[in-house]
């Protein structure tokens, strides 16, 4: 009996990915009313179990010949009903990789969140962890759904819980949330309108079914499909904070509670990049997306503008979280560009950069949370002496920073390498130039931070010490004083992941290649 139960649990692993955090959120809401302290262990345990289910699903995918897992909820079967009648979970290599990123980040942030939640949102632990787990459920569901309308529902689940999580922050959080609600609603409306057009033309909401109908009936030249493509594309670009639709992001992430920004910053924009890749490859198809529309000519130039503007705005910031928020907008440009330069290496770079960027952004925001807790500020001039005071925190933080710059052996180096290779293969020199330009800006930003922290140089360039490396600080200001272990260990784990993903980059790339091989993407001359 036990062996049979275990076997069934393995077979249903893809469903458990969503069931664990969903039921965990219900448990937090109900049990948290009588005992607030129980919410934290419920959140950590349910996300650990979900991560196990995700790893099990990946093993199933690698073992199967088609490298896909289709799972119909509620007893529907593909034999008895046409595809698209029941609710289908559909996992391929790409979907499960991004799901594992979502669950891994969720688990690390849930461990990290214990003290920040108690201190920043006292008495609201049940509410916070309920929304936190629903957020992870929504983001993981986006990666696993096989239905275009359910994708809209899950995007809204993730968005609504995100609004609630951000609104718990500082006094300015309410205004930031309102901005986010306005732009998020516009983006979701565009997407839903586009799905409506798709349904009118194809008669199905199942993603595989939509693609089959487009292929079978030669709908690439249909005006309805072109309108659907533009509407869905606009909705996704707004949701991913692509410049100039990024206005909601910096204020939302800067004014949110520490644990909220540590969860949302690494995941929300990256999951929407995944949705874009899913739409152009698996729903509309390569032929339609890249060959029968003008967007391959237009989007790379929009990306150039996006990256340059975001990098320049990041350069103007004097506060760590706000600087990082603009870097996220620039990184979104990298990944969108990787898709729309339209070749094999660009796609590998874009998908790998989704994974890399989630890891390094997590590392930076966890570090920023610890700095804020100890220094009581994240303004550049308030960070003097932190290398001697918090050496482990600053090491973890700067590993994330060096990855964003693209130094080997961090994961950011390898994803940028593939993006630049893609630019060379497609001869999109403008894309390569802005990649180099933004990398130089990031070098300036992080070395300026090191100068502020280590050499105690003020905004005006005045050295506050008496000589090289002398910070002019009291003993009290330089005494070794790391953050609490419940926050420090998740930061060091995330910094280790940045290095591990970089060192084992070839294993991840080989999985991405399994996914991309079925799409016959151009590899350029001589490749």
Q: What structural class do the secondary elements suggest? A: mainly alpha
Task: Give the terminus-to-terminus CA distance.
Answer: 54 Å
Total DSSP helices: 23
Secondary structure: number of strands: 2
Main beta sheet: strand number and arrangement?
Answer: 2 strands, antiparallel
Task: Give the SSE string.
Answer: HHHEEHHHHHHHHHHHHHHHHHHHH
Mean pLDDT score, rounded?
85
Report on the structure:
The chain is mainly α and 527 residues long. Helices cover 74% and strands 2% of the residues. It contains 23 helices and 2 strands. It has helices spanning 2-11, 13-31, 39-63, 93-112, 114-120, 125-144, 148-167, 173-202, 207-217, 223-239, 249-255, 258-283, 286-291, 295-315, 320-340, 344-375, 386-389, 391-405, 411-426, 429-455, 475-478, 485-503, 505-516; strands at 68-72, 88-92.
Short description:
The chain is mainly α and 527 residues long. It is built from 23 helices and 2 strands.
Structural topology:
Blueprint: H1 2-11, H2 13-31, H3 39-63, E1 68-72, E2 88-92, H4 93-112, H5 114-120, H6 125-144, H7 148-167, H8 173-202, H9 207-217, H10 223-239, H11 249-255, H12 258-283, H13 286-291, H14 295-315, H15 320-340, H16 344-375, H17 386-389, H18 391-405, H19 411-426, H20 429-455, H21 475-478, H22 485-503, H23 505-516
Antiparallel strand pairs: 1-2
Helix pairs in contact: 2-3, 2-6, 3-4, 3-6, 4-6, 4-12, 4-16, 4-22, 6-7, 6-12, 7-8, 7-12, 8-10, 8-11, 10-12, 11-12, 11-15, 12-15, 12-16, 14-15, 14-20, 15-16, 15-20, 16-18, 16-19, 16-22, 16-23, 18-20, 18-22, 19-20, 19-22
């Amino acid at each position: 009996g036990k062996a049979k139960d275990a076997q069934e649990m393995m077979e249903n692993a893809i469903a458990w990915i969503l069931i664990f955090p969903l039921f965990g959120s219900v448990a937090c809401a109900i049990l948290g009313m009588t005992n607030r302290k129980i919410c934290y262990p419920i959140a950590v345990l349910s996300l650990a179990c979900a991560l196990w289910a995700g790893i099990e699903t990946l093993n199933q995918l690698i073992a199967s010949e088609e490298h896909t897992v289709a799972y119909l909820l509620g007893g529907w079967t593909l034999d008895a009903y046409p595809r698209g009648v029941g609710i289908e979970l559909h996992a391929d290599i790409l979907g499960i990789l991004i799901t594992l990123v979502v669950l891994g980040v969720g688990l690390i942030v849930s461990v990290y969140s214990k003290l920040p939640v108690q201190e920043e949102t006292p008495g609201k632990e049940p509410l916070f962890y309920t929304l936190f787990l629903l957020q992870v459920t929504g983001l993981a569901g986006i990666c696993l759904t096989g239905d275009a309308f359910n994708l809209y529902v899950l995007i809204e689940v993730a968005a609504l819980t995100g609004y609630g999580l951000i609104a718990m922050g500082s006094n300015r959080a309410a205004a930031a949330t309102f901005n986010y609600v306005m732009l998020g609603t516009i983006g979701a409306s565009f997407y839903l309108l586009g799905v409506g057009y798709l349904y009118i033309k194809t008669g199905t909401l199942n993603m595989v079914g939509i693609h089959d109908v487009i292929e079978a009936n030669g709908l690439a030249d249909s005006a309805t499909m072109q309108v659907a493509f533009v509407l869905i594309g606009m909705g996704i670009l707004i949701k991913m904070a692509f410049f100039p639709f990024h206005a909601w992001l910096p204020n939302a992430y800067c004014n949110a509670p520490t644990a909220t920004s540590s969860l949302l910053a690494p995941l929300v924009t990256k999951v929407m990049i995944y949705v874009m890749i899913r739409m152009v490859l698996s729903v509309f198809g390569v032929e339609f997306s890249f060959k029968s529309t003008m967007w391959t000519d237009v989007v790379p130039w929009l990306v150039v503008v996006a990256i340059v503007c975001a990098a320049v705005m990041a350069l103007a910031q004097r506060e760590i979280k706000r600087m990082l928020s603009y870097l996220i907008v620039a990184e979104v440009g990298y990944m969108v560009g990787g898709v729309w330069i339209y070749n094999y290496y660009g796609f590998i770079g874009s998908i790998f950069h989704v994974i890399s960027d989630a890891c390094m952004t997590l590392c930076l925001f966890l570090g920023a949370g610890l700095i804020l807790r100890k220094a009581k500020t994240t303004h550049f001039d308030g960070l003097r002496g932190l290398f001697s005071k918090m050496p482990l925190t600053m090491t973890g933080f700067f590993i994330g920073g060096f990855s964003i710059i693209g130094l080997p052996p961090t994961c950011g180096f390898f994803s940028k390498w593939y993006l630049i290779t893609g630019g060379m293969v497609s001869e999109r020199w403008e894309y390569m130039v802005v990649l180099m330009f933004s990398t130089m800006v990031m070098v300036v930003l992080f070395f300026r931070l090191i100068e502020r922290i280590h050499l105690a140089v003020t905004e005006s360039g005045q050295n506050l010490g008496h000589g090289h490396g002398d910070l002019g600080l009291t003993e009290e200001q330089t005494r070794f004083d790391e953050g609490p272990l419940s926050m420090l260990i998740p930061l060091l784990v995330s910094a280790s992941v940045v290095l591990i993903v970089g060192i084992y980059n070839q294993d991840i790339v080989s999985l991405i290649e399994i996914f991309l091989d079925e799409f016959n993407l151009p590899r350029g001359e001589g490749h």
